Amino acid sequence: MIVPDWPAPSRVKSLMTTREGGVSHAPWASFNLGDHVGDDLAHVAANRAHLRQGLPSEPGWLKQVHSASVVETGADVPQADASFTRQTGTVSVVLTADCLPVLFCDRAGSVVAAAHAGWRGLADGVLESTVAAMKVPPAGILAWMGAAIGPQAFEVGDEVRQVFVAQHPQAAAAFVAHAPGKWLADIYLLARIRLQGLGVKAVYGGGRCTFTESERFFSYRRDGVTGRMAALIWLE
Length: 236
Hints:
Helices cover 22% and strands 25% of the residues. The chain has 236 residues and is α+β, with helices and mostly antiparallel strands.
């Protein structure tokens, strides 16, 4: 497990899993938490049960679709890419395997949220939607960026760069020319630009690479068929 290094209030608890420590077999070895990637569902259930031992409740799993939809964390499995809660012991969670997981809390420890930000969701405003759903002043929000594909591995086309630069001209700094019509994108910097534009200045984490750190993380770009890690947050 990765324990986020950020100055969150003491009642805010958070973590991100890695690929290590589970029962799934290759290519999902070993701590796969995704039940939609072709893995034996009994293995997924065993991995989720192991994770559940350290949590106050069953995580509020989402059906993620690379959208900007945000829901309040609940008992069902809604189609959304972010969730928030003000309830003690309710666990918000997102699954990733290259996309950027972002965890949020406010300085008062009154609300937490988790967002799944692939480039599509990021461009469509999933972080903006999450911050809006928290209903607290952005200046009082802290964000932590979990492990995602790094800027040396995330190749995108001209169309992706154009979308981000059209929305925020400063996003041009997050793209380095790589080949004709291809760019290496820094998803961490793209997220920081959008959060800072909202007034969220306290942004932590980043710096890992799911693609290159193959022993530690799942990577869809690297392997195609692979597992999923979870980023979780709750109020104690």
